[in-house]
Amino acid sequence: MLSGAKRYIAIGFTVMVTGSSSVFGYGMPHVKLGEVCSNAELIVVGRITAVKATDKTLRLTRVLVKGQDLVLATGEKIPQEAKLKQDYVLGAQHATFAVQRVLKGTFPAKELLLELPCLKQGEHGAMTFSMKLERVPRQAPVMLCLCAHKETPGLFTLANAYRSAIAIADVPAVAKLVDDAALPGTPHQQAGALLAASLEEFSKADKFARALSDLINLQGRAASPALQNLLDTSQDAIVRGKVLTALVEIGDYAHLADAVKFLLAEGTTTDAVLGGKRTLMTRMSMVTDTNLIVKLYGPLLRHPDAWVRAEATCAFREIRYRTLVPVFVKGLDDPDRRVRYHSMIALAFALNQFELGWAPDTELFENNEREYLTRWKTWWQTTGQAQFTQPPPAASTATNHP
Fold this sequence. Notes:
Layout: E1 16-18, E2 22-24, H1 33-39, E3 42-65, E4 68-73, E5 82-104, E6 111-119, E7 142-148, E8 155-158, E9 165-167, H2 172-179, H3 187-202, H4 208-219, H5 224-233, H6 237-249, H7 256-264, H8 271-284, H9 290-296, H10 306-318, H11 325-331, H12 337-351, H13 362-367, H14 369-388
Helix pairs in contact: 2-3, 3-4, 4-6, 5-6, 6-7, 6-8, 7-8, 8-10, 10-12, 11-12
């Protein structure tokens, strides 16, 4: 007996190199920004004022352990179950950082010296390993999460190479917060306030997705006011899609009806907007509030995009919504295989029918789709249709007496 079903999952990634100081690789481990802030010894706000290359060599090890990529510093113990080990040679840059504000730790001077990893000339192989080395922007304001250098006193390194450099906007609202000696809250909250003040400016640039992710990572539900403000002011479809997705992600469903309207909106749809709609719908399919799903999601089952139809079906599947059994049966004839599959599994959930042959995983379904669909269609014709399309009872003609 099957307790559920596999789902189709789309994973997108981009590999690119910017200058000589950053590597973006697919498969980057998920590292929460809040954890980075907690582990950092020093969190500062300021600007990089000077950078120079050094002769120092950094050697990083990529280890594949039980199907996961781990990056270990040289000298650390490599787990015995490691399946693959490969070293990558990087260079090091020393950067001067002008400190404008210290959010965590103690650093009385106006400047500090950083050691940042970078690609060594000719070492292109580093593009292939799954570590993202932050590109600290030159002269742009940035928050850095740092730790003291293990070997050189007075030198600092990134606390976590994945998430240690946090871009903030170069706008008056941010500058005012940086200069505010009474900026309230913990370092997490202060960093969140700077990100919230940056959001509108970053919505005009390619830094928006990262800033949005950082903000909700740090603030969670507390990010709602900043997100709602941007939703009220921006007419950009890509921005609105990302903001609506973020609101659903943090569990703020006050704009879920707006999200449905956004998905149903007609007009010219670019690949970027369509991608945003699909991401939003995938996040919406994880909502578990039965009342909201029943009230709002129905029209999405007829959406022109198959991805949206499939994910909407998944949402109804999870709440085991028997009322829509006839709709799920109709979905068995959808032109898209994903919709056909999820409609079949929605039927299995609604009817609690997980016996062998009724709720296969995706692999079994793909290998013998016709058999599974025919079984469900036969059930509908012989049993289900009469059960789920009963005519309403006739009105009573009896006379009621007091």
